[in-house]
Amino acid sequence: MTTSDPSHPFSVFSRREWAALKADHRLTLSESELAELSGLNEPMTQGEIEDIYLPLSRLLGLHVKARRDLKDVREAFLGRRNDRKPYVIGLAGSVASGKSTLARTLSALISGWPGEPEVEIVTTDGFLHPTQVLEERELMARKGFPESYDLRRMIRFLSDLKAGEREIDVPVYSHQTYDILAGEAQVVRQPDILIFEGLNVLGLSTHAPVIASDFFDFSIYLDAEPDDLERWFVERRLVLQRTAFRDPTSYFYDQRDMPEDEGRRVAADIWRRINLTNLEENILPTRQRAGLVLRKQSDHRIGEVWLRR
User: Fold this and answer.
1) Is residue 5 part of a domain?
2) Kind of pairing, strands 193-197 and 292-296?
3) Exposed / middle / buried, residue 228 (Cβ in 10 Å: 0-12, 13-18, 19+)
4) DSSP structure class, residue 286
């Protein structure tokens, strides 16, 4: 489906058109803060903040206010006290698309809104089945696919969050050990805004009566061409091979001294067998469900924004 297709559900904005929508929003991040937001091989620049993220911050602020105003009206009509629940932003996209950088950037900007709302990021990695379970079910090569997640626990977390549970434990995943950390938990205490980030958050189990996106107030899909995603994935893995893989606790410690040519071949093979398959089968088909699509160029800059009509 192309953006000129009459059935395309989005209004399409060029970078310049989108940048003009920031109105009176101003940059609230210092150069050192921008550096902290940057990901591996993915710098966050002042231009990206000004052109893309400030208009997005403004849009989200309007959505949050409208949702809360509507809830105030409903609760007043019913004669009930309005106990505000977290506003949940779902963030989806492929491996290597830059979701973590996007989540951190949104969190930093939203935290600077009037009133300094509390923002928390939860990733779906914490809901992956432990390695032992994946090995027993022969799913290690399907890690990140819908069947590799504990979907019941994920839905229970989102349901409890929206029901107003004061403290909810979320499992913690370690990219270093490539596994869930036993006995550790991220405690979520009813933040004002929760960013729920992961590969398949707009889809996951299509056979379940309730899915994760049912709990989202707004959703974003971070998009890029598959060839660019592959290149970013390979480059990122080579950086990790020179850094994180050298830690003896790393799951990939035995690959730390792999020659660069071999490292590129291994990374490209992983991309094509696993990540590209997951993208084509499970992730990309959910793009049409998003409220907003950010389309990346080959240099990581957002070149186009699609806003659901």
Assistant:
1) no
2) unpaired
3) middle
4) G
Does some domain include residue 303? yes
Structure tokens of 307? 């806003």
Question: Which tokens is 31 given?
Answer: 């150069």
In the three-class reduction of DSSP (H, G, I as helix; E, B as strand; rest coil), residue 55 is classed as: helix
User: What pLDDT was estimated at residue 1?
Assistant: 44
Alpha carbon distance 131, 116 (integer Å):
38
Q: List, in sequence order, every beta strand (DSSP E) within 119-176.
A: 119-123, 168-174
- C-alpha 176 chain-centroid distance: 19
pLDDT in tens, 257-289: 999 999 999 999 999 999 999 999 999 999 999
User: In which residue are the tokens 């009813």 written?
Assistant: 190
Domain of residue 147, CATH code: 3.40.50.300
194 inside domain: yes
Amino acid at 270: I
The residue whose two tokens read 């806003």 is 307
- Containing domain of residue 104, as a range? 10-308
> Nearest-CA neighbor of 287 among 308, 261, 263, 273?
308
4 belongs to a structural domain: no
**Which two three-digit tokens encode residue 71?**
């809830």
* Cβ pair 67, 38 in contact under 8 A: no
Please give the tally of structural domains in the chain. 1
Angle 113-195-304 from CA coordinates, rounded to 5°: 80
